[in-house]
Sequence to fold (662 residues):
Amino acid sequence: MTIQFNDETFRDDYTFFNTPQGIRRFPFPFDQDSYMYSVNLEPHDKGPEGTPFNVRFDVDEHYVSEMRDRDITLTEDPLRCQSLPHMELAGWDLLELIMTSKAKDYPDLFELHQDGDRWHWINKPLEIEQRFTFLDPTTLPCGPMEYITRQAQGDFALLDQREGNLWMDAGMVTSQADWSLDFDIGMNFLEWHAPVPGQAHDAKVFERALKFLLNLQQGAPTRRLNWTMTVNPRLDTSPENYHKWGPEKRTVTPDNVGEKQYLRVELQTLWRLPRSNAVAFPIRCYLLSLEDIVTVPKWGRRLHRVLRDLPDELAEYKGFTVNRPMIVDYLAQFDDGAETSPGIFPD
Amino acid sequence: MSSQMLRVTEISSLSPLVKLFRFEHPDGTSLPLFSGGAHVVVEMPDGELLRRNAYSLVSDPLEGAGYEIAVRREDTGRGGSLYMHSKVAVGDMLRVSMPLNLFSLDLRARKHVLIAGGIGITPFLSQLKQILRLQVPFELHYAARSSAEAAGLGLLPDLPQVHVHISDQGNRMDLGAILSGQPVGTHVYTCGPEGLIASVDDTAARLGWPESALHSEAFLAPPPGAPFDVTIASTGQKITVGPHQSLLEALEAAQVDIDWSCRGGACGRCETEVSSCHGRIEHHDHWLSDDEKSAQQKIMPCVSRFVGQEITIDR
Fold:
């Protein structure tokens, strides 16, 4: 499988685009016509061919440009990547997991040659070749977590497990839906989920999810989808840069909503790491504009129904209350009331 | 619980009561690495019974060529260790779970102090290898009644940080001395009988240690007891739990679907709601809070039992 990488931007002139194949493989998050916040964890097993669920770490047409955007964000704000001192071993675990997965899943793009602890890594799309000694940080240009997450799409959090809790003690976060690593670093699982409103807390879903994750087994990763709405295809919707993207919400009009309003989906996976016993939490962001979504009739109908019926506090939490009527009006044109098939995939 | 079939490639005696078993993949494939303190669950097909016991890994966590466990023969136990000692031979294939760690090192520690009683030495053998690689200061204190009982001796490195206390040679472990004067940022790990863990906790509290710096793992096997009946709410089925069987094992034998992981009352995976209970649940786990235990609305089937008229569980 050869991937044609898009040359595109995620800021300023926003030249980001999805090809028709890119649209079809989008991880549409709604398996029915309504939505309720839930933990919805399922095994991260191999999904259908061509979908992002088919590999451990999905590489798509946005890879090269997304890594370029990450570099811009990091140059402006180095605190988007932080690792507390005790997390270095987890960083090596993550590096191993990503390198071995990518070399196996994309042999035409990535190669890993291991001779004991002497490793030789080749990343063809980013034109990187690195010989280094595994577990020896002096042989890499930066820490192991930063090194590998500059070459992997999506944000990454590394969670230390102790005292019956998970602690966000390291991460690379440049494509986030309005949360801050610099703010959350050192917090535990229940602390960093505190902002989720209403229902979720009453149902004690987080306590149950935490209990499940504390028992997460090696070799049995788990995944869930989360979603929000973003105006313009911007990866870096961080609190730090709210002044840059917040006002853009006001640029949406009935004429441009289909083009400017994006459904932002996070494919979140959770992995037990071997040496450190930490949990890796990759949060991979996918963006698809409303006008691209409605090219899949099932998705157009369903998204209309979900957003129309969503409780107000969830629209508020996800930050699109201001444009919700415009979005729902736009999508209504594509909802003929027909029944939708179960599951998330296009018909 | 994912697992794989592994071949027993070596059995050796560490002491009159303790044997070391080495497992390797039949194809020679490397096994998943793990972190110090991790355990595996070994399945033993013993006639009609499928026994499953958890054992700490004692081999090097960064060495994937094989897994090693140390098994102490419990002549009055439920039979798992006897099976390992008497029925398992080199060349046999046994099902072994993926490693899971409920007793990991706190990697923030400036220094690790490891305190082992008896067979409680086992999780420290892999932790020690991890600590030596990480090059963090440590002390290990290993208490045993006699040198014949100190099965871990042969597996411990000959280092000045390793202290062995054999009580019948008059060398008793002095917890006050061990816990006094440790540098700030030290973490303490205890594994052994409940009494040892309680003494470490008491001594540490007296000396003003923060609770978050204290870690412990009791080696919990399901205790035997009087047989009892349990009703399954979803089907109305009545199951008898034998004196040497755990409720979890009885549920498994009756094909009742139940998730599990540590089988020692620590991980919480098999937690089960109790819908009615006329009698007393004998809680043996470290998972439920004291309030939950006294409420009698939850039970941990891996280690806990019941005495009384009637109990119905939500399964």
In short: Residues 20-38+48-85+155-332 of chain A form one domain. The first helix of chain A runs from residue 20 to 24.
